[in-house]
Amino acid sequence: MRCIKRTRILACLGIAAATVVVITRVSAAETYAGKTVTILVGTDETSGFSLYSRTIAPYLSRYLPGTPAVIVRNMPGAGGSTAALYMIQRAPRDGTIIATMPANAMMDRLFGRKVEVDPTVFGFIGGAERGTRLCVTASRSSVKTLDDAMKHKAIIGATAPGSPTSDYPNFFKRSTGAKFDIVYGYSGVGSLYYAMERGEIDGVCGVDWTALKAQKPDALRDKTMNIVVQFNEHPDSELQALGVPQPWSFIKDDVDRQAVLLMVNFQQAFGKAYLAPPQTPADRLSILRSAFAEVMKDKQFRNEAEKQRLDIHSVTADEVEQSVVKLYRASASTVKRLKELSNDQAAR
After folding, report:
1. What is the strand order of the sheet 180-183 is part of?
2. Residue 91 and residue 262: Cα distance in Å, rounded?
3. Of 145, 143, 174, 147, residue with least CA distance to 156
């Protein structure tokens, strides 16, 4: 008799558990069914962040419960800080918006810049890539190699202070003695490439290797563009095969080297990270993380990314968060020197 009762109890518990699962699934589907989810990109339409987001969007729709529409919206400005500030101050907290932006936007608070964004308040979702940044010049430029950069002047174009296209040439110039004249005011990476092509500038720094392969395959194939340097702690095998050097032997000061490494390592670890606004409910954040992780594993998505020459390196939410935590635990002396190397006050 006891066995029968126990069996009935267990059966009832099983039904109850199944009911909870069904209710949870229905609730999640109701959350997103008929809705539109926005991927906010903190750069212009020509950036690598836009390329990745447009590729991810249709697959994210598949894996979100209720199959909502997923659109991409660009909000460039202040090296990604305009979008970051929007996410903190105005974005809805209901799981219907996520964002991606340059890692520089996460460094504003560290640098004490005018637009201060506290990166620790975001809900991190995951990342799609660990990128290597470059300096490139037009083939007609007298600066074709790192040695050339120490001997000949080059006009380097940049978007806004605080962006990768500003920070990279600044810290490279100050740590190595490269003869860069930095000109600001370009609207995005696309406009910088166009300025190179028409002879207005010699080159640009802080561009993403994966995005460059996708956007300028002809320039790489026809060698109308020089890749002067790759910024990473461990060289990219593809770039190494092309003979592209790292900057470390040109940075003689140990403090400078540690400061530049801090920025380079954070940029790579943060990569193409995606985040949700502060105070996004835990259940919505969990749904977004699970859906994003499934996209990263999807074979069709990976095939599509390969066709577009986009490298995919899946990064977990915890890994993205830890990269931010590690950055803000750096020694005060290293941060101070990085601020000095990246100083762009003259452009403000």
Report:
1. 180-183, 154-157, 203-208, 133-138, 225-231
2. 30
3. 143
Which residue has better confidence, 176 or 6?
176
Residue pair 273/315 in contact (Cβ under 8 Å)? The answer is yes
In the structure encoding, which two tokens stand for residue 2, read together? 């006891």
Architecture of domain 32-130+269-336: 3-Layer(aba) Sandwich (3.40)
Q: For the residues 305-334, what does the mean pLDDT come to?
A: 95
Q: How would CATH label the architecture of 133-267+339-347?
A: 3-Layer(aba) Sandwich (3.40)
Spatial neighbors of 187 by CB under 8 A, at least 6 apart, are: 44, 76, 159
The tokens of 34 are what? 């008929």
Pairing of strands 133-138, 69-74: unpaired
pLDDT tens-digit map of 127-141: 999 889 999 999 999
**Distance (Å) of CA 126 to CA 52, 81, 315:** 13, 19, 5
CA distances from 248 to 179, 232, 331 (A): 17, 9, 20
Three-class SS state of 230:
strand
Q: Which helix (H) or strand (E) holds 302?
A: helix 299-307
**How many residues comprise the chain?**
348
Question: Which residues partner with 157 through β-bridges?
Answer: 183, 204
- Give the span between the Cα atoms of 41 and 56, in whole angstroms: 12
Give per-residue burial for 291-305: e unless 16+ CB within 10 Å, then b: bbbebbebeebbebb
Indicate the SS3 state at residue 34. coil
Backbone angles phi, psi at 101, to 5 degrees: -160, 165
Average pLDDT over all residues of the chain? 90
- At 158-169, the pLDDT tens digits run 998 888 999 999
Instruction: Please give the pLDDT value at position 348.
Output: 37
Q: Given this chain, do its domains 32-130+269-336 and 133-267+339-347 carry the same CATH topology?
A: yes
